[in-house]
Structures are given as C-alpha cells and as structure tokens.
Design a protein that fits this description.
Blueprint lengths: L1 H10 L5 E5 L4 H11 L6 E8 L6 H15 L2 E6 L8 H20 L3 E3 L4 H14 L12 E3 L4 E3 L7 H10 L16 H16 L3 H30 E2 L2 E3 H4 L4 H16 L8 H12 L4 E6 L3 E6 L2 E4 L10 E4 L2 E3 L3 E6 L9 E4 L8 E4 L6 E4 L2 E4 H7 L4 H6 L2 E3 L5 E4 L3 E2 L12 E7 L8
Parallel strand pairs: 1-2, 1-4, 2-3, 4-6
Antiparallel strand pairs: 5-6, 7-8, 8-11, 9-10, 10-11, 12-16, 13-14, 14-22, 15-22, 16-19, 17-18, 19-20, 20-21
C-alpha cells in the first residue's frame, strides 16, 4: 500500500480534516489503516452507518467504536431505523451520503474517503454495460470526485480485494465479515462471485486494464461535454429543446445533449434510466405525430409539441368539465360573459338566436370526437386545434361553448359555428371572450 499512502501524503496538507467512511469490513479497515500512516498532521473522523438489517449490525458498530477509541480517533455513527423505498440499496446509499455530508459540514472537512477498490470498479462497469447507461456511466466511478465543498476520494481504486485481504493479514488489522456478501440474491454479488474470478484468472492485471478503460471514457466524455455545452445553450432553453436545430447536430453530440438534460433532471436518480429510455426519447423526436408524449421513471414527462420537446412538463389530464354559463365564467386564463351589446365582430364575440339552440349554455373542454357545424360543412374540433398550432396543453384548457344538446356553438377566440349571427341578423344573446394571456395560439 506504499503507493496509496504516498498518494494521500501528497493530497493532504497539515490541519486538513478527513472523514473516513468506516463499515468495519476488510476494505474500510484497510482504508483507515493507510490513512493513519499518513505523515501529515491531519484530523481523522471515522463515520459509521448501522444499516440495522442484520443481527450482527450492532456488534459491528461496537467493534469499530472500540477500535477507534483505542486509536484515539473521533468516532461518529448513526442507525437507520426505517426504510421506506423499495430500492433498499439506493435508499441506504442516499442516507449514507447525506449523513457524511452532515459530518463534513459539522467538522468543516475537506475530504471524504471511501473504500471502493478495483474489483468494485470492475463490477460497476460490467453491470452498467449489461444494463445500459449513459456514456459516462460506462466509466464506473472516479478516483477523485469534486463535490463542490469537499472532495470524494477512493484511494484503493487500483487494488484488488485479494490485495486488501493480504495487507490486512500482514498488518494484523482486525475486521468484521458481512455474510450477505456471499449471497447471490444481489446482482452485484453474482458478478463478484462468478465473473470476477474468471477475469482475474485470464489477466492478473485486469484491474489496471479496467482503470485505463474507465479513465479513457472520462477523457472522451470531458471532450464531448465541451461541444455539448457550446450547442445546448442555443437549442435548449426553459426545459424546451428545438428539434429542428437538434437534428442538425452530430449523433454523438445529440446523445450528449439528451444525457446532459437528463442528468440535471434526475441527479442521483440517474441510475433509473438506461438505453431503452434514451431510445424512447429519440423515437419521440422522430415521430411524425405533432403532439405526443412519453413518461419516464419518477413520472418525468417528455412532451413533443410540433418543433419542440419539453422535458419534465406537467401534463393536463383533461378532466371533463361542464360549467353553466349564467352571466360570467372567470378563471386564471380567461373571462367569458354574457353582454347586452357589443361592436366586436371578431372570434372573441358570438351572437346567437335562442330559437336555433337549446338553452342554457355551457362551457366545456375538449372531448374525443367533438365536431363543430360550420356554414360550409362540419369539422372535428381537434383538427381545428391542429390547424391553429395549439399546443396539447392549451387544447386541454381551451374553452368550448355548447348548448344543452352539446352542440358546439363556438370555440372562443378561434372559430364560430353556423349558428353565429352577424350584426344585421336577429340575436337574443351575445357572449364575449377575453383571454388573459394575449394571443392564445400560434399563427
């Protein structure tokens, strides 16, 4: 472990505060030992999480506490009493890192050290390759990660599990054994127990090879990101992607832009996505449908509206409404009211003869198959919305005036039916429409 100890010596400065994630297993006990051998005057905080899922958990907490007390190391711990998420490993990981960041703030630490080693890296890369992930996801994890107010360091990334075991034996380092690591119930364990021994047998330097692969992916990703950042600011604004401009770009940059958007939306939950979800987004972009959407994990909506793709857009479920029009209906979008007279002849006002319709009048939103009778025939209301380039969201909230037989009399601001009268014709009722948001459809 001379190389790892020298690395930490060069990394740390005197008076740095370092938090070591300490489970009590062979990997983390090895990590603590090499940190103790650093010849800088650093302050070490050992942080332990009692996951509280095995009967041995309490004994392991006592073991690491007693060890730290003997070594004069500050010891901090917490116990997870309740799990709410179906994904146990994800929830446990989130709790771990949240707790570690609390300690980082408490002690004003510069570094968090974890015991991830070379075999862990291989397992992560293989799992991501088989499952599918983002381009950067194929790199596994880095030796150093800048978290903003501290650095996450994995000093053992070049060491195998076997090397760590031998180091512990040689240096008489005590550790606890988690028996669940032998269970093939978990995906990672199946890679660890069945695949890794074969790889180590094929090439004794397999960890070095995977580290080179990981670093190469990271270098390529850093290069691609520069182009992605250059293009994305012009074609993606306010969660809205310009499709025609997007399709002019190289496929690699396109993929980078989609991954960039998804990373910002999902953050630590990015593991929920795989190649299949990326394909769904591409299918949405390339479909001939003008208005359609997909729903990604965590109910993230991706909506296509003509030449734009909206990410994380709220979809109106189009709950049916039928509001009786007595004198006035007002909401955040519009005012519709009955007036005594008006000089307006635009689509914002309609004049009706009560003898030709069935009173009372109602305001509804769109329904499947709804048609409007015009003077030169009838048309589907939805076709009129498409002609007006009305977005799906606006279609769902667009008011429609009907009589008691559900005959469409008027699409306020857009189209009048054959029942509309001009100023020279007899009319009994005048209805006026005021849209609060300015122009309510694109021309």
């Amino acid at each position: 472990m001379k190389e790892e100890i020298n690395y930490l010596n060069n990394l740390f400065n005197d008076n740095d505060v370092v938090i070591v994630s300490l489970s009590g297993g062979p990997d983390s006990m090895c990590l603590l030992d090499i940190t103790l051998k650093v010849n800088k005057k650093i302050k070490i905080i050992a942080a332990h999480i009692n996951h509280n899922v095995r009967k041995e958990s309490k004994d392991e907490e006592t073991f690491v506490k007693n060890f730290c007390d003997k070594k004069g190391i500050i010891f901090e711990s917490m116990t997870i009493n309740n799990y709410t998420n179906q994904n146990f490993h994800k929830e446990a990981r989130d709790i771990r890192y949240n707790y570690m960041e609390q300690l980082i703030n408490k002690y004003k630490a510069k570094y968090l050290l974890t015991a991830h080693h070379g075999d862990d890296l291989i397992e992560s890369i293989l799992m991501h390759l088989v499952r599918g992930t983002s381009f950067l996801g194929y790199s596994g994890f880095k030796k150093e990660t800048d978290q903003g107010f501290y650095k996450l360091i994995r000093p053992l990334i070049n060491k195998s599990k076997e090397e760590i075991k031998n180091y512990n034996i040689k240096n008489s380092i005590p550790f606890a054994i988690d028996k669940t690591n032998k269970s093939k119930k978990y995906t990672r364990n199946r890679y660890r127990l069945d695949v890794l021994p074969i790889l180590h047998k094929e090439n004794t330097k397999v960890i070095e090879k995977f580290n080179k692969f990981s670093n190469l992916i990271i270098e390529y990703d850093d290069y691609i990101k520069k182009d992605v950042e250059r293009y994305i600011k012009n074609i993606y604004k306010d969660n809205k992607l310009n499709i025609s401009e997007f399709l002019k770009l190289d496929k690699l940059i396109q993929r980078g832009i989609i991954e960039n958007i998804l990373y910002k939306i999902y953050e630590d939950d990015i593991y929920l996505l795989n190649d299949r979800h990326i394909k769904y987004i591409y299918d949405l972009i390339n479909t001939e449908k003008k208005n359609t959407c997909i729903i990604l994990p965590k109910d993230i909506n991706v909506v296509k509206e003509y030449n734009y793709l909206y990410f994380n857009k709220t979809i109106n479920e189009n709950k049916k409404q039928k509001l009786l029009l007595k004198d006035k209906i007002e909401n955040k979008d519009y005012i519709i009211k009955i007036v005594k007279e008006s000089d307006d002849t635009t689509n914002n006002t309609i004049r009706l003869n009560k003898s030709e319709i069935k009173m009372p009048l109602y305001i509804i939103n769109r329904e499947n198959g709804l048609k409007i009778n015009l003077k030169n025939g009838h048309r589907k209301v939805n076709d009129i919305f498409i002609d007006c380039k009305l977005s799906k969201e606006k279609r769902d909230t667009q008011p429609i005036l009907v009589d008691s037989d559900n005959k469409v009399l008027w699409i306020p601001g857009i189209k009048k039916s054959k029942f509309s009268k001009d100023k020279t014709e007899k009319c009994d009722i005048i209805v006026e429409y005021n849209f609060k948001g300015g122009n309510h459809y694109e021309k």
